[in-house]
Design brief:
Layout (H helix, E strand, L loop, with lengths): L1 H17 L10 E10 L7 E4 L12 E5 L9 E10 L4 E5 L7 E5 L6 E6 L7 E7 L9 E4 L18 E10 L5 E8 L8 E6 L6
Antiparallel strand pairs: 1-2, 1-12, 2-5, 3-4, 3-12, 4-5, 6-7, 6-9, 7-8, 8-11, 9-10, 10-11
């Protein structure tokens, strides 16, 4: 079963790297890596992978996992970012980690941009917050990275625009109607994957 899952993930990653969906921005280089350790908590918020700065992996690099072709999103989806590196390994903070905030948008929905973070109540649920209250968002809509960079620098490095993240499960209007919170189910189950691809070389450096 593990081999089958591995095969599916690797096929997804290969399809992704070859597909038009792969970001051509800033000369990203895909680096395949395997998960060698996982944080023991149920809301697994970080993993260690077997590729580090010796092969160009840097803090802030986006990390993706292959998904089944049936998802029809180009083969891979964002699961987090590189938090720390050694020459041979990298610690990846997952989307379920409170320290990870991603500028994201609901694909095809005008004004539906916000910041994606885990829910404080349930880290397995992702919440796209600060979405304009007037925007129309429906369950089943796809959520992708917006390429937005927080001027304060709190969001770390910019993710290239268009990386798949997940699907809207619910949109909740706040009392004041200024903003809505959009609940997002990630494409990848954050507790169970074995292979990743790290997008290295952002900004044109190798």
């Amino acid at each position: 079963e593990v081999n089958e899952q591995d095969g599916e993930e690797l096929r997804g990653l290969l399809d992704y790297v070859r597909s038009p969906a792969f970001p051509q921005i800033n000369n990203y280089q895909p680096r395949a890596a395997r998960v060698v350790a996982r944080s023991p908590s149920l809301t697994s918020s970080s993993v260690v992978v077997d590729a580090g700065d010796a092969v160009g992996v840097k803090v802030g690099d986006p990390v993706l996992v292959g998904v089944a072709q049936s998802a029809d999103i180009g083969g891979a989806a964002l699961i987090g970012r590189v938090e720390r590196t050694t020459p041979e390994t990298a610690v990846v903070s997952l989307l379920s980690n409170a320290s990870v905030a991603v500028g994201a948008t609901v694909s095809g929905r005008r004004g539906a941009d916000g910041i994606l973070q885990p829910s404080a109540a349930d880290p397995s649920v992702l919440v796209l917050g600060f979405v304009r209250g007037s925007s129309v968002v429906k369950p089943g809509d796809r959520v992708i990275t917006s390429g937005f960079l927080d001027p304060s620098g709190k969001l770390g490095s910019a993710y290239p625009r268009g990386l798949p993240i997940g699907v809207v499960s619910e949109a909740r209007q706040s009392d004041a109607n200024t903003y809505k919170s959009v609940l997002v189910v990630p494409w990848v189950e954050l507790g169970s994957f074995a292979n990743v691809v790290i997008l290295t070389g952002a900004g044109g450096t190798s």
